[in-house]
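U., I forgot to send this yesterday:
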Amino acid sequence: QVQFVESGGGFLQPGGSLRLSCAVSERMFRIFSIGWYRQAPGKEREWVASIRTGGETVYADSVKGHFTISKDNARNTVYLEANNLKPEDTAVYYCNKYPPSDAWGQGTLVTVSS
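Result:
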């Protein structure tokens, strides 16, 4: 069963905004905290933000203040709104439980460039 399906990436200029979506299997969404992660070219995958089942949110220092994680309980979907994007935010973005399992999805590519 596919557990995480990411969407919403694209090509943006610096300063742009977008919203990424993660469709989560019902069981995962109901039981676990869900996180967003990213992997920039040539770098290790890193944690970006997570949201607990009760809605509490936690962010990496690198995105605090310009990324917002949220969820829609009716849709089993977790969102990542990214504002004021910078070239260093270029990466493939993934969602997974937090802490992550080995069941990674395909991710969605975000490219920020002028």
